[in-house]
Amino acid sequence: MERRDFIKISALSGVMATLEACRAPEKQLIRFIPEEELVPGIATWKPSVCTLCSAGCGLQVRVMQGEAEVVRRGQQGVIKMGLAKKLEGNPQHPVNKGKLCARGHAGLQVLYHPDRITQPIKRTGARGSGEFQEITWDDALKEVAGHLSMLQSSKSTEMLAFLGRPLHSQRRELIARFLKSYGARPAVWYQPFDEAVLRQANLLSFGHAALPTFDLARADYLISFGSDFLGTWNSPVAQSLGYGEMRQGRPGRRAKFVQVESRMSQTGANTDEWIACRPGMEGALALGIAHVILSEKRAPQGAGSHAGSLIVGWSAGLPDFAPEAVEKQTGVPAAVIKRLAHEITQSGSAAAMIGGAPLAHTNGLFNALAVNALESLVDSARDAEPILGFMPESLPGEATGSMQASLASLNALAQSALSGQPHTPQMLLLYEADPIFSAPPALRIREALGKIPYIVSFGNFIDDTSAQADLILPDHAPLESWLDSMPESGSLQAVASLAPPAVLPLHDTRSMPDVLLGLAHQLGGEVVKALPWTTYDAMLRAAFVPLRSRGGSINAQTDDDFWDAAQTQGGWWSSLSPAHSTGSKAVASSSLAAAKHAPVAMTAPEFAGASGDYPFYFLPYVSQAFGDGSLAHLPWLQELPDVLTSAMWSSWVEINPKTGERLGIQPGDLVEITSQQGSVRAPAVLSPGIAPDMVAMPAGQGHENFGRYASGRGTNPLSILAPLADRETGSLAWAATRVKITRAGGPEQAKLVLFAGGMSGFPHEEQRR
Amino acid sequence: MSHKWGMVVDLDRCTGCEACVVACHAENNIPTAGEDQAARGRAKHWIRVERYWEGDFPNPKIRFQPVLCQQCDEAPCEPVCPTYASYHTPEGLNSQVYNRCIGTRFCANACPYNVRFFNYYNPTWDMPLQLQLNPDVSVRSVGIMEKCTFCVQRIKAAEIQAEAEKRELKDGEFTTACAQSCASKALVFGDLNDPNSEVSRLSSSNRGTKLLGELGTKPNVTYLERGNWQDGKNG
Known about the structure:
CATH architecture of the largest domain in chain A: 3-Layer(aba) Sandwich
Radius of gyration of chain B: 18 Å
Number of domains of chain B: 1
Helix content of chain B: 10-25%
Largest sheet of chain B: 4 strands, mixed
Number of strands of chain B: 10
Strand order of the largest sheet of chain B: 8-1-10-9
Strand content of chain B: 15-25%
Radius of gyration of chain A: 27 Å
CATH topology of the largest domain in chain A: Rossmann fold
Largest interface: A-B, 92 and 71 residues
Number of helices of chain B: 6
Number of helices of chain A: 23
Oligomer: heterodimer
Number of domains of chain A: 4
CATH class of chain B: Alpha Beta
Number of strands of chain A: 27
Order of helices and strands of chain B: EHHEEEEHEEHHEHEE
Shape of chain A: globular
Distance between the termini of chain B: 31 Å
CATH topology of chain B: Alpha-Beta Plaits
Distance between the termini of chain A: 73 Å
CATH class of the largest domain in chain A: Alpha Beta
């Protein structure tokens, strides 16, 4: 026996003795052997993966020894263990290169959140009452397995439904296999701000059903149509890295950046030129610029011909989009359109991107195809490598982005539940999606879930949707889990991020993929054939090991070495070869052939609500702090002053000062915003960065249930959205609702908390109340 | 060689993403005030991003400006402290000696940058959020002042390590939490006494200005002005 083993055994028997000695479990002091590599006071760094958005940045977790109260084998006690202390970006990771955004840093608070569900719980009160009682894992899993075999034996497995937040990991593959082999209906992946329109447009224009990767560090001119690429859209950390270089990374060469939008975003605030455009008409503006380039023969013959062929009238030089005509449609002066076309074609390299609100109209796909055509015309026409590219695929399968619009599939599920027909869902598995909070009210999600007799949630917080669950099987926090991520953009290298758990679990939770694999084994038959692994890391290993043959970041002789190296590096990535940067020039022709589409003519956006009754466009936007609201429970992000308003802990509505003056609305006043679907109240922020006929609200607040920091705080703009969708893809047109506003009270009735920064020496600093 | 720590904030790179703000909270154990205390102006952000609007729709302009302690050479906060809690270190930091501070708040009144924060109450963390605390940084109790330290715990750790290895500190070997997180590399930290450091090189840029420099505070933070595309090329 080695000395180390002897110490282990004596320590363990000491633990047993202690356990015997104490009667009251809450008084028991359990001391496990510390993790061996940890020296008190010395930090070790472990790789991990950020799962808070789909960008899939690589993390490094600072782990130090500390004392934590944990649950082990049903016993609560204090142990010494490795604790995560800080998150940093992984410097080797090709997407974020050592950097991390504000939301990513707050991932630490997901782990230590006081309102995490610490063990399985079962509903005792009415649905949504929030009354649950604790049950053991054994009982909980028996119950779930019982329901699953019951559906199997009654040959009604298609009555099992799954509703989750879109994942970019092998978990998605696991869930898909589970559902398919069991015979359930395909999973519904829902998030309100989805990217189905852009993926569809990129498939048609460039042959890639994926979000784009712009190599901004090489751009001399960038025109962005609505995309908040420095804040919340696509891969913001990777894009910010490129942006810094585009501005000051090349001595003597500074790019021009133009943003087109109707409410100044954080990204729009950084422009050289900000252009206000009528909502939903961004595509027409892009074609107006293209018209000037084509008619003045400023691009090589045939440039952008494929992406352009998707637009009616392209080969004839877009006769309907003369600058004067476009001025009438968009409100952008013809002289500006001409000047932009000249500037773009005179620059060394240029790119056009679209994201956010322009895609969230009923004509979203048209706007996307129009901007793609402009991008193709100005970017791919050059001799140099294009700015636009697409990330090569790392792991095949379900893991990458979905083409399916999440609104359409969610609506199908809700309608099916509400119909009362045979084959309506009898059992629902819920995983981190919160459609009661984030879906338009017309979908009647709350009512639909009420019709489903049995709902199981895997989330580790009670949110508005999981409050309806009958049973909650809490997942580990991400830092306690095996993590993987297959980003769809942010680098021109293929990337498959991977990390083992950075810390041991704090609570009596279980990894959601492991629970599904365990259920697969209990069900047996086809399900276990599709999922032969007993743990998720075994499944990950099977998926990752084939990457060894592709070389790249890991040079390993054996599969074991490869697997170890992938865990140490935080994943695998391919080397950057020119052949991989399949930009708009190297269009993926095979996919193009499969995705034929008739040319699209300009269509005007439709809005819910007549302009007479509802005079304002309503723009709910992705919050810089909370994303779509899924991060509103984290106190660091609640106290983060919004960069454009300095608001914390609050909802607010942005109104143009002239509109405020006309309606008698002062800063901080309570304002009621009413659409055809309902109304919300929020304090007013008067902002010069918004059109006089528009009001805007950040999404994210207004949860009924989401932990102590978010519950009952602020109001939810998504709750008054009309259920309009993009005409082709069915994706939620979240910018297509019109509203009216009235003053509902003074500042004392509104709760608007602003950060008291500011310097008396700077007179320009906005006046705060 | 003695060090003189300084920072450059490139306003042409800064995007207003506020990653620095949360990174600073995580690194320096800054307590969350909560809604009610924040409404009374008691939220603490050692680094913040200010905004300056100009013009009206449809031509509004906004400028972001991260503001943190300027670590002034002639710091107005230092001579007013009756207990020498505001102290100028040999390496040029305006440090705050917590156990000397008696909470007169004279320093906060004297500081033109509004970067000193008073602890109106003892900080608390809802269990188990206290596990996020950085053991290298002390938490501050009621009645004392706190402020940006340029992550002095990181400075000290790096200096001690270099000394143990009997070598000079290398530029870029470590940085502050805000600069480490900054994706567009707007924040650059380093040793102004090292003429070859990146921060020294950038500090001498012709875009460089000092915040409220006319007050004679001699800040060790240099702001680089935004470039102007109309001027054409800008280095």
